Amino acid sequence: MPAPPSSVSARPDRGASIDARGPPGSSTRGSPARARVGLFVTCLVDLMRPTVGFAAVKLLEEAGCAVAVPRAQTCCGQPAWNSGDSGNARKVARGLIAAFEPFDYVVAPSGSCAGMIRIHYPELFAGDAEWEPRARALAAKTHELISFLADVRGMTRVAARLPSSATYHDSCSGLRELGVKRQPRALLATVAGLELREGKEAETCCGFGGLFCVKYPDISAAITDVKTDDIAATGANLVLAGDMGCLMNIAGRLKRRGSGIAARHVAEVLAGMTDVPPIAGD
Amino acid sequence: MESSAGRFETNARAALATPTLQAALAKLADGFPARRLEAAERLPEFEELRDAACAIKEHVLDHLDVYLETFERRVAANGGEVHWCRDAEEARRTILDICRRVDARTVTKSKTMIGEEIAINDYLERHGIRPVETDLGEYIIQLRREPPSHIIAPAIHLSLAQVAETFRGSHADLPPERKLNEPDALLAEARAKLRPDFLAADVGITGANMLIAETGGNVLVTNEGNADLTHTLPRVHIVIASIEKIVPTLEDATVILRVLARSATGQDITVYTSFCSGPRRPGDLDGPDEYHVILLDNGRARLLEGEFRDMLRCIRCGACLNHCPVYRAVGGHAYGWVYSGPMGAVLIPALIGMHEARHLPNASTLCGRCESVCPMRIPLPRMLRAWREQLHRERRGSFLARLGFSAWASVASRPGLYHAIMAPLIRALGNLAGAGRSFRRLPFLGGWTAARDFPAPEGETFMTLWAEAERKRKPYADLRVSCEGTPTDVKGARP
Questions:
Q1: Cα separations (Å) of A142 from A178, B145, B425, B454?
Q2: Most distant CA pair in chain B: distance in Å?
Q3: Are B323 and B370 in contact (CB under 8 A)?
Q4: CB-CB neighbours of B374 under 10 Å
Q5: Partner A contacted by B490 (CB < 8 A)
Q6: Whole-angstrom Cα distance, residue A58 to residue A248?
Q7: What 3-state DSSP class applies to B237?
């Protein structure tokens, strides 16, 4: 099992370039403002792929943020919300709101979890006198990792290097709820040695859909096959995405079909943390 | 129409195992979305048009009673008649009464989804009247006694060879050695077969893409021109339309027409756009003697109040079907009723009841592509979720799933307990995985591993590793962020 990557304990090494002087409204004269970011690791990264969490910390620090990881975090509540069980979704969401309220920003290495907080928390608590304002306030400062780095922190390049070819899968929530599209591509274009190949179906759902993939495995697999065929057609040897759900699904299906294409979270590549084996890889 | 929505899972499995269907669906997914995108990009004001079209429908829904009554008065002034029908049975009986009064034997039909909704063909046949579909796709599936599998392309599930086989079987009077391997040959044969029926029909039944309140007329769009022959040649024209099809003015209709074809097929406009103005007026060279409009509610008025109201903006373009990964995988018949795809998954439970249709709102990844292409900006994913809420409220889901969520929420709302349980569990799972780094099979995750490997976790949870890393980290010079995650600014003030 992996030790925490050593680079994380180092201070920001200015490996990445920041355009702006940090976010408006919080600048300290003379030096880039240090935004206090609460990292919402997300349950899948916490449990399945901690490397993505460390990659997020590294990238955020490179972008001049002070990062903390509140221990009082678990899950955003999305599985219950998408299953129509708002009661249990609220129960979990309240804990998350309380844990992250003190920060300037909440950042998650997932478009789907960030979308849950940003778009759906206000719906989840609509009409609740105490919690709706708190949910709205949290929603307003919550971001998906890569778009936060590019749009809020003005990151334009990374110091990473990876001699490979990759295709990027647009996760549905990130793409359609949060407008994550050009940011990961722009930053990936600065990874030395990495060639980006666009899939024709890059914006098509991978068939994960949370519990959908276990409730309707046959349909899910058929949808995933469209995706993995498209990935294979690009000729890339690596598929990248910003969401662990999609990645586990795509990687699992690729492996089952005997494909040699590797799958990784985009943050691992941007942070130069590709020493760990790819998802589901040897 | 009778429903098989309750057997969605079985239907879907059968669809996935039908190669001709899969080939047809792959072709559809390749064609329509790209053509829609090109059409939208050709028109700089496309997004504004979507907003304008939406606003028209919203306004109509706010004043539905006013516009429907205006429409009725205009139809009457033109010499036609509006028949208000609460449900399918009332609509069927009204249509049959008209047909019987004029002694109809043959009824030609141009495409009407409401006709499918009330299963008018079966009904007329049972009462000795011969309905003839004149839209090529509808004609084919009528011969095959199948329901449509797509709103605008009802026979999209069939290959050319299947259609040829159907024609050979049904047109037994034609020479068996004739060639039917080109679409044009099939079209020519259908046209020749339909011509005498167009001329013989006593009644023509059409749908309506829109009803226009200010004129008391209706709009029909087709690419084959069959609607024109259906409503001008017979003595009687019956329009079947649901109540939300009304728009205030001709100008409003043109706004909606501009988004309709572009969203549906990527055409700027359909080949034919027909405006019917009612019965033949003195001096008119052609047109029917009688003009009847069957105004069907069938559960729609109920949707005006509440969370499914936006669905009444739907103009039946089919864009959500064309862009839906689930529709693309299983096709329209799997949904088990008249409609399909995302709009079907929202509408069917409202029209035939949740018990029968409970699978449909669940069988979606909520990927949101439908909403992004819907010309009327209908929040389809939000409504699918709303149905799931209702299913949950009514305790129709599986008992085990309910229990699972409650147990999960109890643990996930206690972070200390959650991390204490998860860390050793994940460690064990990581150790179990071995060199392959994925599982081919796992207990409780059969749904996952049926189709894909389950990737092994790295081993330790992030929270465990982070706690270790935190102890070694140098604190930030200008500000402190504690391990527990409460930021305390060294200099005091928080922004």
A1: 11, 54, 30, 30
A2: 95
A3: yes
A4: 25
A5: no
A6: 23
A7: strand
Q: Across-strand partners of B183?
A: none
B441 pairs with which residues across the strands? none
Compute the 3-state secondary structure of chain A and give helix, strand, coil in percent, each to the nearest 5.
Answer: 45, 15, 40
Do residues B121 and B92 make contact, with C-beta atoms less than 8 angstroms apart? no
Cβ burial A175-199 (10 Å sphere, 16+ → b, else e): bbbbebbebbbebbebbeebbbbeb
* Structure token pair of residue A222: 């058929």
Extents of the domains making up chain A? 6-21+34-151, 160-270
How would you list the strands of the sheet with A161-168, edge to edge? Answer: A192-196, A161-168, A238-241, A262-265
Assign B182 to helix, strand or coil.
coil
Rg (CA), chain B: 28
Among B101, B65, B99, B63, smallest CA distance to B84 is for B65
Contact B481 A220 (CB under 8 A): no
Residue closest to A134 by CA, chosen among A103, A108, A97, A102: A97
A-B contacts (CB, under 8 Å):
274
pTM of the model: 0.93
Which residues, in sequence order, are CB contacts of A164 under 8 Å at separation 6+?
Answer: A193, A194, A195, A237, A238
**Is a pLDDT exceeding 80 seen at residue B254?**
yes
Amino acid at A41: V
pLDDT in tens, B454-478: 999 999 999 999 999 988 887 787 6
CATH code: domain A160-270 is: 3.40.50.11810
For CATH 3.40.50.10420, list the domain ranges present in chain B. 43-303
Residue B443: predicted pLDDT: 84
CA distance B490 to B487: 9
Do residue B401 and residue A83 have CB atoms under 8 angstroms apart?
Answer: yes
pLDDT digits (tens, 9 = 90+) for B65-107: 999 999 999 999 999 999 999 999 999 999 999 999 999 999 9
pLDDT band at residue B482 using 50, 70 and 90 as cut-offs: low
User: Which residue among B329, B368, B408 places its CB closest to the CB of A222?
Assistant: B329
Give the fold, CATH level 3, of B43-303. Answer: Rossmann fold (3.40.50)
B 288-307 residues inside an 8 A Cβ radius of A = none
Chain A contact present for B406, CB below 8 A = yes
Say whether A160-270 and A6-21+34-151 share the same fold: yes
CA A41/CA A66 separation, integer angstroms: 15
> CATH says A6-21+34-151 is which class?
alpha beta
- What residues 365-394 of chain B have any CB closer than 8 A to a CB of chain A? 365-369, 371-372, 385, 387-393
